[in-house]
Amino acid sequence: MEACITPYSDHDHSSKGSGLAPWPARLTSPPPRLADFGYSSDMFEKDTELWRKRVENYWDLLSPKISANTIRNVMDMKANLGSFGAALGNKDVWVMNVVPEDGPNTLKLIYDRGLIGSIHNWCEAYSTYPRTYDLLHASNVFSEIIEKKGCSGEDLLIEIDRILRPTGFLIVRDKKPVTDFVKKYLPAIHWETVAVADSPSESDGDDVVLIVQKKLWLTSESLRETD
User: Where in the cell is it found (predicted)?
Assistant: First the structure.
């Protein structure tokens, strides 16, 4: 599978006459509708490069835990311009890009990049089957719902646990008090820390990267069977 699937039935047809680059160049080419959102091509290119470097860093941190087919279904819980998903273009994964219902509706730009996406409020449950995703990426998602919306960070953790498959991963990029909050609840939901790292880019300010893994819940009976 490609890293992302176009929402259109035929991306070659949809790009004709629209000013869009052909697939897969459109993943990293500035879309014509950037100006509608107040973005310049330079801003877009810098965002694309920033997330390329961040994704490389994520994979370096994940490398002791993953193999070629470990991660297939991925969700970016706050996709913005879709650069996280675009940076996965060289991975054999599928990416769902989620944008907030009360923010700029950047789905148009995400679609222009040949990606798919949806609109969602993370104060509520996401409409998907349990254990759908192998990797969830939460960049400033927890701080937004806790500080700006006054919603429950605990409820969000439970929802993440619902939609993430056992042995799947969550990447949290947020302020240290937020990552400390997440770590506090890991034993209760049977998760474990994979890596904690200060963000290597100056543009990230004081953001911290926390990568955690959902463990298998084993009963005492199943433990005896594995002995």
Answer: Endomembrane system; Membrane
